[in-house]
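Researcher: Following up on the earlier apo prediction. This time include the ligand. It's zinc ion, with the SMILES given after the sequence.
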Amino acid sequence: MIGCTCDTCRSTDPRDRRLRPSIYLDVPGRARILVDTSTDLRQQALTAGIARVDALVYTHGHADHILGLDEMRRFNMLQGGTIPCYADAPTWKTLKRAFFYVFDGVARQGGGVPQLDECEIVGPFAIEGVRVLPVPLLHGRLPILGFRFGTFAYLTDCSAIPDDSWPLLEGADTIVIDALRDKPHPTHFNVAQALDAVARIAPRRAYFTHMAHDLPHAATCARLPRGVELAYDGLIVDVDVDAA
Ligand SMILES: [Zn+2]
Ligand SMILES: [Zn+2]
Ligand SMILES: [Zn+2]
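Model: Understood. Below is the ligand-bound prediction.
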């Protein structure tokens, strides 16, 4: 946190240096899928050596999840051609307002805007033979999307899992789920709520994401139950996706 001198913000543990939330799914021979364009996308792509994005998928339109969208033009240059971009209707509305110059169809001097194909999420879909199942979540009062890819589920930015979404999470082996801090928060699960959700989904392993500086990495992991830990920037996990 800018200007903060707490133990987490001054920590020398690299796992306490957190950029904004995003994941990159690399399915060999099929597709490389980026979920959200975080404010820190440029730095994340440079650090992780990401050189290709076959499709972009959005969870919701909050600033920390969309503000790196302009970086997508570099992938257009590297790959040639437009990149399919999947989001629900409210998120598309936000993207078009926040990035009017990308989507207004007006040619600009110098060119340089991302070339993205608008794809509206209305149900399960496929990216280059990879099945993607949207999982509706509640982020405070805002309906947003988690995603299930095979036995893996990504559930960032949620404060409740609606009744109809629990069946979509059955049989998940690996999940990433929002856990902001210990104190309750109106739009994010706290640790206790995230642990309740993990217990109900019962995956083999769960990773917490979107932590605030209230949760230092090592000390928090030490008090979590077996199979649950904090994710960290650069974490790589092997998962099984479904063919579409
Ligand atoms: Zn701090
Ligand atoms: Zn959010
Ligand atoms: Zn967020």
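Model: The pocket of zinc ion (ligand 3) is lined by residues 21, 62, 64-65, 157, 210 (CB under 6 Å).
Researcher: Noted. I'll compare it with the apo version next.
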